[in-house]
Each structure stands twice: as C-alpha cells, then as structure tokens.
Amino acid sequence: MTEKGNDKLIALIGFYKTQNENYRSEIGYMLLPEYHNKGYISEAIKTLLDYGFTKMGLHSVEAIIDPRNWASEKVLLKNGFVKEAHFIENCYFEGKFLDSVHYSIVKQNYIK
User: Fold this and answer.
1) Please, which pLDDT band fits residue 86 given cuts at 50, 70 and 90?
2) Model-level pTM?
3) pLDDT tens readout for residues 34-52
4) Going by C-beta distance under 8 Å and a sequence separation of 6 or more, which residues neighbour residue 100?
5) Are 9 and 38 contacting, i.e. CB atoms less than 8 angstroms apart?
C-alpha cells in the first residue's frame, strides 16, 4: 500500500489463508508506525471487505491479532468486526508462548 501520488511502501494488507470450502478468508496488515492513526488501514480494510464479499463471494472474514495490539483491535471494531475468541498461549514464537485474539465479520453485518 502506498499513499496517493507517492511510490513509498507504507503498509502491507491482504487476504491470507482463504478457505474456499467455508467461504472464509483471513486478512492481515502491517503499517509503518509513522502512518498510524491516519485512517489508512481502516480505508484499506473497507476496500478488502468490499472485494471479498462482492467479488470473491466470501461469507465471512477473520483477523487474528496480538491481544496487546489495542490499535488493531480498535480498527477492527470500527470496521464491524466482532471478537470471536481469545486463545491462551496458542502460538509459539521466538521461545515464548503467546495469546491470540480472533475477530470476524460476516457479510450480512458488513456496512459499506
């Protein structure tokens, strides 16, 4: 993702782990810190959801975040996602067990 009129990469966002048989996909995103709180990820999420629900025929979209990432939780809730689960120490990364929180939105609850 870049800003309009600028080729500098500021973020990565996309669908991951699409489950065609379940009409479900996961989104993931990373944004450079100097671009936080400017609405870029929220705008991109809306674009992805619209594409996923209208072009890909998805029924639901999920996002999995670190529970300490309050900014990511805030942007997901702002875009209509709901918390599905908080898994305790279900991921092993760099010698530590970490929690993950799963959010989702179903097509019928998506508002453009």
Assistant:
1) very high
2) 0.90
3) 999 999 999 999 999 999 9
4) 64, 65, 66, 67, 86, 87, 90, 91
5) no
DSSP for residue 97? E
pLDDT score at 112: 78
Measured CA distances, 35 to 32, 48, 53, 58, 73 (Å): 6, 19, 27, 29, 17
Q: What kind and span of H or E run contains 65?
A: strand 60-65
Contact 48, 36 (CB under 8 A): no
pLDDT at 111 over 90: no
Contact 41, 48 (CB under 8 A): no
Distance between CA atoms of residues 65 and 82, nearest Å: 12
Q: How far apart (Å, rounded) are the C-alpha atoms in residues 37 and 49?
A: 20
